[in-house]
Design goal:
The structure is a single chain. The chain is of the alpha/beta class. The protein has two domains: 3-274, TIM Barrel (Alpha-Beta Barrel), CATH 3.20.20; 284-373, no CATH class. 42% of the residues lie in helices and 19% in strands. It is built from 15 helices and 16 strands. It has helices at residues 45-50, 60-65, 69-74, 78-82, 94-100, 126-136, 154-179, 201-212, 230-240, 258-266, 276-282, 314-318, 321-329, 333-359, 363-373, and strands spanning 3-10, 13-20, 23-27, 29-33, 56-59, 88-91, 104-106, 111-114, 121-124, 140-142, 190-195, 218-221, 250-252, 271-273, 285-288, 291-294. It has an eight-stranded parallel β-barrel, surrounded by four helices. The longest helix has 27 residues, at 333-359. The chain is globular, with a radius of gyration of 20 Å. The termini are far apart. The relative contact order is 0.13.
């Protein structure tokens, strides 16, 4: 069972730590996304330590298809498989089932869908998602939910949220059963529930109240960053956070830009994940203290400065903008590796700076200064 300790509050902003069987997580934290037990861009688990990653996030749906969770389980679980001894969060597969699988049928028992790899028919419900995640032996498992399309009618959202609640009850029951079995790899696996409700604040609040009574290890806000405006996203966070338990971590799924993170931290969020830094890096879009740059631009051809002056990432310590631009132009794999390392370091370091600012009672000042430096009004 995870133990969340609230170390400090500054308005709604929270500074905490979350004890797990694989180590203590300092929050707020950004989780580095390694969908298939690997960070896209040739970044290893050794690299993750060097760039300050606390939590790695892998994907239930993708690993179930390849190499299969049974294979990972036979090899001792994800930690052994990818040689990572810090916490791992696995998402439930729900988002992928709803976004990747064009052919799908949602029923009370779960979802029938076709694999995006070979088209074969697959069924996943709450019990299956928990069994897969138990085989993966992650530190934190996410409940199986429906990621509601945006926009959706009120009636659809109400029915979907009610089913997600019933699925959550089944997830909890199955997780308790799996953790009691003698051959389960991680008997301390934790379960986070997911708040849904689209952009309907009243549905969100009711759902938050309902799942809060279930005494889970943590709570996520799902179904955002799917096309709604930033204002709508912030409104939902403002509405939901006060109705989630104060003594449990709060995770905003799939968000987002550095500015999104600052705004959500201010609203009481502890955990974040997003493919954005790695995806941007692979396309030569690099985060710096002065905002984002596109390394492909001709103006960097003779630029001997590092990507971001003062940055302590492996790319900035050893290479110039000119060289990294050349690698991209020459389509060398090293280009993506250095760019992804830099962007992930930028995010992990931003979280460290956020934690330091909260510790120093200066989060509001830090946030204002950062947004100004990045040129965000």
């Amino acid at each position: 069972m995870g133990q969340y300790t609230l170390l400090k509050r500054d308005g709604k902003t929270r500074r905490g730590e979350f004890k797990t069987v694989h180590g203590t997580i300092q929050t707020p934290v950004f989780m580095n996304v390694g969908t298939l037990a690997a960070i896209k861009g040739a970044v290893s688990s050794m690299d993750l330590k060097e760039i300050g990653c606390q939590v790695e996030l892998s994907n239930t749906y993708h690993l179930h298809l390849r190499p299969t969770d049974k294979v990972v389980g036979e090899l001792g679980g994800l930690h052994k498989f990818m040689n990572w001894d810090r916490p791992i969060l696995t998402d439930s597969g729900g988002f992928q089932v709803f976004s990747l699988a064009a052919m799908r049928k949602i029923k009370e028992e779960g979802v029938y869908f076709n694999s995006h790899i070979d088209g074969r028919k697959i069924f996943m419900g709450p019990e299956e998602s928990m069994q897969i995640q138990s085989n993966l032996a992650s530190t934190i498992a996410m409940a199986f939910d429906e990621c509601i399309p945006n926009p959706s009618t009120r009636e659809y959202v109400e029915n979907s949220v009610a089913r997600t609640t019933r699925w959550l009850e089944r997830c909890k029951k199955e997780m308790d059963r799996l953790n009691s079995l003698p051959d389960t790899i991680n008997k301390d696996q934790m379960l986070f529930g997911i708040n849904q409700g689209g952009t309907y604040e009243d549905i969100r609040i009711e759902h938050a109240k309902t799942i809060s009574k279930m005494d889970l290890d943590g709570y996520a806000i799902g179904g955002l960053a799917v096309g709604e405006s930033h204002e709508d996203m912030y409104k939902v966070i403002d509405a939901v956070v006060p109705h989630l338990p104060v003594d449990k971590p709060i995770y905003l799924m799939g968000v987002g830009t550095p500015a999104n993170i600052l705004e959500a931290v201010e609203r009481g969020v502890d955990f974040f994940d997003c493919v954005l830094p790695a995806r941007n890096g692979r396309h030569g879009h690099l985060f710096t203290k002065d905002g984002k740059i596109n390394i492909m631009n001709a103006k960097y051809e003779l630029d001997t400065k590092p990507i971001d002056e003062g940055c302590q990432c492996p790319a900035c310590k050893h290479y110039t903008r000119a060289y990294i631009r050349h690698l991209f132009k020459a389509k060398e794999m090293l280009a993506m590796r250095l760019a992804v390392l830099h962007n992930l370091y930028f995010y992990n370091n931003l979280m460290q700076e956020i934690r330091d600012a909260i510790d120093a009672d200066n989060f509001a000042g830090f946030k204002a200064k950062k947004l100004q430096e990045w040129g965000i009004k």
